[in-house]
Amino acid sequence: MAAIAETPIVADPAPTKKGRSKRALKQKNPSLNEANIMAGAVVEPAPVAALNSSGKENHESLSQPKSQKKTKKGASKAKQQSSEAFSFEKELQEMQEKLEKMKIEKEQTEELLKVREEALKQKEEEQEKLKIEFKKLQKIKEFKPNMTFPVSFTLKDLEQEKKDKKKGDFSKKKPSPPYVLWCKDQWNEVKKAYPDADFKEMANLLGSKWKTVSAEEKKPYEERYRAEKEVYLKIVGNEKRDHEALKLLEEEQKQKTAMHLLEEYLQFKQEAEIENKKKTKKVKDPLKPKQPMSAYFVFANERRAILLSQNKNIFEVAKITGEEWKNLTEAQRAPYEQMAMKNKERYAQEMEVYNHKKDEEAANLKKEDEELMKLRKQEALQLLKKKEKTENLIKKTKENRQKKKKDKGEKIVDPNKPKKPASSFLLFSNETKKNLSGERPGINNSTLNALISVKWKELGEQEKQIWKDKAAEAMEAYKKELEAYNKSVVETENKNQKQ
Question: Do both 21 and 94 map to the same domain?
Answer without folding.
Answer: yes
